[in-house]
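Hypothesis: this fold can be encoded by more than one sequence.
Test: take the C-alpha cells below, design a sequence, compare later.
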C-alpha cells in the first residue's frame, strides 16, 4: 500500500493503542481503491467515431447544399426550451409528451426540456424575431440532435440526429409539393433508390372534428380488444390510434372510416393539387388514408418516405402542414409546412442498399524525413503546404524512414516526398506517386503547385 497516504501520527497511535483487529480495520479503511469505474456512453446514445462521424458530416453537407439550392437558409435554435413550448404544440395526448421528454428544473425552478423535435423551436424563433416581416414564404432548415426517452433499438435512440426544413407563410399546395419533392430529392442524392413515398391528409378543423367524432363512435365498442395505449388514445385523441403497431389494433383500425373519405371540399381539392405537383415533378407515391402524423399541430397534407428494407421501423422521414401552430403561439396567422429526417435511419438505409459513401479522408501528401534533425524543417514545409490548401501529414513518433513509408501507405497518402540532407541542400525533392511508383523532381517551393497539377491529371497517366 502507499504508506504516505496514511497520516503518520494516526498510524503510530493505532499501532500502540488498538487491538490487532482494530488496526486491520484501519488499514483496510485507508487502503487506496485501485478499482476504477468503467464509464460508458449513456443508454440510448452513441459515440460517433471518426468514420461514422464523417458519414454524418456527409449527410449534413449534402443537405446544406441541396436545401440551399431550393432557397432554404439555416437556423440554429437552443438545445433546450421551456417545457410548455413542446407540450402545447406536440399535444398532451402524444407519447412524446406523456412518456418521452427529458424534462428538468433549472436552478431557478424553471421547467425546461431537451428538444424532442425542432418545429416548435423554429416557430418560437419565427415569432420572437418577427421573421413574418420577411419575404414569404420564409424558408428555413436545421440540423441538430434531438432527445426522447424511448426504448433504444436500431435507428431509434434517446439522442438522435435530425435534419429538416420549414416553409412558413404560404397556404398554397405547390409549396407542399416543393417540400415533399425536396425530401425525396435529398434522399435520392445519397444514391438511395428503394424508397416509397406516402401521401395523406389530416383535413382541417372543419372536417377533422366531425371525422374524429365518427372515428371514436366506431372504435369505442371495440376498445376492450385494443391495447391500453389505444384505449387511452381514444379518450384523448382518436387519430393517434393510427400510430399503433399492435397487430390486433391494426386489424381493428383497418375497418375504421378513412379520413380521406371525409375531407371537406377545400381540403380534398388541396390534396389533389399537391398530388398534381408531385406527379409533375416525376415522383411516384402512394395515397395513404391512415397516414396520421404524431403531433397535434398537423393540418391537411401529411407525407412520409419509407425504406421497405428496414422492416417495421421503415420511416426515414416525413412531415406535414401546420397552419394553426404559429397563431396558437401568439404569432400572426401563418400557414406552414415542413419535414424532419432521422439521420441514423438514413445511415441504416444506406447500409441496407449497400451504398458506400465516398468520404474516405486521406492526405494528398506525406512528408517523410531521413534524419531526425531535419524534422523542424519538414514541419515548416508541411505547415506551408497545409496553408496552401493541401491535406498533408508527417510522422510524429520518430519512426524510421521505412516505417514512415509504411505509414504513408496505411494512411492512403496519394504522394510522398522524402526530405534528407541532400534534398534540403539542393532545394529539390522527388514527389513519388504511391499508386504508380512514378517520381517527379521539383524545387521545394513548387511542391504545392506540382501536387495540385498531378492531382488534376487523368488517372492512369
Amino acid at each position: 500500500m502507499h504508506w504516505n497516504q496514511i497520516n503518520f501520527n494516526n498510524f503510530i497511535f493505532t499501532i500502540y493503542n488498538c487491538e490487532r483487529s482494530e488496526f486491520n480495520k484501519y488499514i483496510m479503511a485507508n487502503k487506496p481503491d485501485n478499482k476504477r469505474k468503467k464509464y460508458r456512453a449513456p443508454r440510448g446514445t452513441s459515440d460517433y467515431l471518426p468514420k461514422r462521424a464523417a458519414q454524418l458530416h456527409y449527410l449534413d453537407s449534402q443537405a446544406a447544399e441541396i436545401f440551399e439550392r431550393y432557397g432554404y437558409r439555416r437556423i440554429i435554435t437552443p438545445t433546450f426550451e421551456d417545457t410548455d413550448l413542446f407540450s402545447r404544440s406536440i399535444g398532451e395526448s402524444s407519447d412524446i409528451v406523456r412518456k418521452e421528454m427529458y424534462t428538468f428544473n433549472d436552478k431557478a425552478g424553471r421547467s425546461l426540456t431537451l428538444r424532442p423535435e425542432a418545429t416548435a423551436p423554429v416557430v418560437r424563433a419565427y415569432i420572437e424575431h418577427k421573421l413574418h416581416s420577411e419575404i414569404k414564404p420564409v424558408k428555413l432548415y436545421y440540423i441538430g440532435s434531438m432527445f426522447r426517452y424511448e426504448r433504444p433499438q436500431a435507428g431509434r435512440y434517446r439522442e438522435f440526429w435530425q435534419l429538416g426544413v420549414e416553409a412558413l407563410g404560404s397556404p398554397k399546395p405547390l409549396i407542399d409539393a416543393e417540400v415533399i419533392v425536396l425530401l425525396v430529392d435529398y434522399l435520392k442524392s445519397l444514391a438511395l433508390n428503394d424508397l416509397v413515398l406516402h401521401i395523406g391528409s389530416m383535413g382541417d378543423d372543419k372536417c377533422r372534428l366531425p371525422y374524429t367524432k365518427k372515428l371514436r363512435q366506431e372504435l369505442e365498442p371495440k376498445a376492450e380488444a385494443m391495447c391500453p395505449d389505444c384505449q387511452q388514445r381514444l379518450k384523448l385523441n382518436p387519430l393517434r390510434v393510427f400510430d399503433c403497431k399492435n397487430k390486433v389494433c391494426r386489424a381493428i383500425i383497418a375497418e375504421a372510416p378513412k379520413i380521406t373519405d371525409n375531407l371537406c371540399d377545400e381540403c380534398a381539392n388541396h390534396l389533389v393539387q399537391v398530388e398534381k405537383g408531385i406527379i409533375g415533378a416525376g415522383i411516384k407515391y402512394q395515397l395513404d388514408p391512415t397516414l396520421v402524423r404524431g403531433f397535434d399541430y398537423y393540418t391537411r397534407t401529411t407525407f412520409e418516405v419509407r425504406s421497405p428494407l428496414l422492416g417495421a421501423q421503415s420511416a426515414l422521414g416525413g412531415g406535414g402542414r401546420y397552419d394553426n401552430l404559429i397563431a396558437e403561439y401568439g404569432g400572426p396567422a401563418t400557414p406552414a409546412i415542413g419535414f424532419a429526417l432521422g439521420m441514423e435511419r438514413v445511415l441504416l438505409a444506406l447500409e441496407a442498399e449497400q451504398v458506400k459513401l465516398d468520404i474516405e479522408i486521406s492526405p494528398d501528401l506525406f512528408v517523410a524525413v531521413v534524419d531526425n534533425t531535419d524534422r523542424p524543417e519538414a514541419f515548416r514545409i508541411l505547415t506551408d503546404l497545409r496553408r496552401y490548401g493541401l491535406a498533408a501529414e508527417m510522422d510524429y513518433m520518430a519512426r524510421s524512414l521505412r516505417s514512415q513509408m509504411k505509414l504513408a501507405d496505411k494512411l492512403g497518402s496519394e504522394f510522398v516526398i522524402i526530405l534528407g540532407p541532400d534534398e534540403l541542400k539542393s532545394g529539390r525533392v522527388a514527389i513519388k506517386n504511391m499508386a504508380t511508383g512514378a517520381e517527379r523532381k521539383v524545387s521545394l517551393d513548387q511542391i504545392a503547385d506540382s501536387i495540385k497539377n498531378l492531382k488534376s491529371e487523368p488517372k492512369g497517366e
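The longest strand covers residues 138-147. Residues 1-39 form one domain.
Hypothesis status: open.
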